[in-house]
Amino acid sequence: MERPFPTVAVVGLGTMGAGVAVALARSGRRVIGVEAGPTQALRALDRIEASTARAVERERLTAAERTALLELIEVGDDLAAAAGADLVVEEVPEDLELKRALFAELDRICPPETVLATGTTALSVTRIAAATGRPERVLGVHFFNPVHSMRLVEVVRTVLTSPRAAEQVAELARDLDKEPVAAGDRAGFIANGLLFAYLNQAAAMFESRYATREDIDAAMRLGCGLPMGPLALLDLIGVDTARTVLEAMYAQSQDRLHAPAPILGQLVAAGLLGRKSGRGFYTYEAPGSSRVVAEEGAAAEARPAGRAVRSIAVCGSGTMATGIVEVFAKAGFPVLLAARSREKAELAKAQLARSLERSVAKGRLTGEQRDAALALVVPTGSYRDLADADLVVEAVAEDLAVKRELFTVLDGIVKPGAVLATTTSSLPVISCATATSRPRDVVGMHFFNPAPAMKLVEVVSTVLTAEDVTATVLELCAKVRKHPVECGDRAGFIVNALLFPYLNDAVRMLQEHYATVDDIDTAMKLGCGYPMGPFELLDVVGLDVSLTIEQVLHHEFREPGLAAAPLLEHLVAAGCLGRKTGRGFRDHARR
Ligand SMILES: NC(=O)c1ccc[n+]([C@@H]2O[C@H](COP(=O)([O-])OP(=O)(O)OC[C@H]3O[C@@H](n4cnc5c(N)ncnc54)[C@H](O)[C@@H]3O)[C@@H](O)[C@H]2O)c1
Prior knowledge:
Layout: E1 7-11, H1 15-26, E2 30-34, H2 38-57, H3 63-72, E3 73-76, E4 87-90, H4 96-109, E5 115-118, H5 125-129, E6 138-143, E7 152-157, H6 163-175, E8 179-184, H7 191-207, H8 213-224, H9 230-237, H10 239-253, H11 262-269, E9 283-284, E10 292-293, E11 312-315, H12 319-330, E12 335-338, H13 342-361, H14 367-375, E13 377-380, E14 391-394, H15 400-413, E15 419-422, H16 429-433, E16 442-447, E17 456-461, H17 467-479, E18 483-488, H18 495-511, H19 517-528, H20 534-541, H21 543-557, H22 566-573
Bound molecules: nicotinamide-adenine-dinucleotide.
Nicotinamide-adenine-dinucleotide binds next to helix 1 and strand 6.
């Protein structure tokens, strides 16, 4: 294919337009920049000169490249100049009437073959296209901020956009060293559509005081490896912008999960828009600053001291139990590893020895540390040996009957005053607690897999958990170098309650043929900096496990939008469970 669009007009040279103009000129294209008036045009030119000068300082660009690219950019305030372009990219503020008027004008000015692209985030591309007489040559081209470093470009087709126009714009994006993905015309497209629904749930979770802002953010960073927590990200994006995008999403989907959380409206009404205004979910040193400061008058809550923990027992012999034993033993705690039989306990200890050996091989542990940790672990096949433990952590099968039975047994054996913890990820902690005569002493300790590597522990208090029991577990987490977050006893705790609805949304997008598996994964990795795309993650976690968690969440909250996507149910029914069976959303066997 010949190089598409040698001359491109960019209308609106603000944050996005200036970035797009530079990227285009860098690829050797002539850029006709158009601003709203002479003052704005001068400001835009300044912005482009300053940003390219910074790029030279940071060695992203040579001085010669900068000079060459600046020569390719002209900036004026007469829209008629756009007549000389093969493609027009519109990057004016997010206002439908403004954009429609501009497109009607461009349609009049530009030759009929010129392709017109809008940079909108959440407005209807179709309605913008309808303001012209050439809707087949109108599409969306959604870049991400900052344009120079974000590789994702969503190429948005309406029902009328010609495939050729979309392919040419995708080709242009590749020529700019970007990764284009194909999306249909729906508010938020792929990346923001998935991202903002999740941000909204995080805001609602904070609003309901289920967990603190710091804990919600830490949970998603440490539990899912996300580059930023959702509330910090809302502050960065701008609470007002987020609310506008959600309004647009809700208008189209009528899904209550997209209805902006009331707290967003309150913050906007109070002028607390996030970093740009110095305060949003967090308070910043100054408007525009990224440095979080404590609010005036904020005092740390007094909490009772925890109970003494000298010896720990872990029940179970699977992946989680073995990983948790490793965490405690490496931190110097004597650990009883209790399984249903002595053989199972011995096997689990052998598994632990192999894991420690791998750490030694990778240079993360010395031989002495390995030996010291192993010496602290005593396998046993009898729960009677747990009588003197200060803390018992249950990590047996995720089955309420099995767990309740174990808690009843432990209740009869373990000394009074000991803390009893469950690692359940989707069962109610309170149901474990009520299987004992001491529900005050029962708490959730939700580790993540692999436990030795994952820093996060969700500490789950039921309505009956004693404060010093919660404190015991929080203190212990600090001693074993884990990051605890506190939450109440409801389905999904923090991480799964925010993660799985997002994964389910991704499956729904696929099921509706809105976008492909690869494009959705690419959009989330490149557009949001996620370590894995949703389908990669679903295949790793297991589709059956994911389906169970989604069903639990749906059952708990009865939110129609949380119902598991039928496609997920079908794949599970067909035995496509992800990597473990060789096939899930992707075919792993053939790779
Ligand atoms: N900022 C982001 O993170 C981001 C990311 C992706 C997409 N977008 C979308 O990109 C578009 C532009 O957003 P932005 O953040 O660059 O906005 P911005 O406010 O920084 O820039 C808009 C520019 O358009 C100019 N303008 C206004 N009316 C004009 C007219 N009639 N003709 C020519 N120029 C005009 C303004 O002077 C301003 O310089 C919006 O649709 C936005 O939703 C923004």
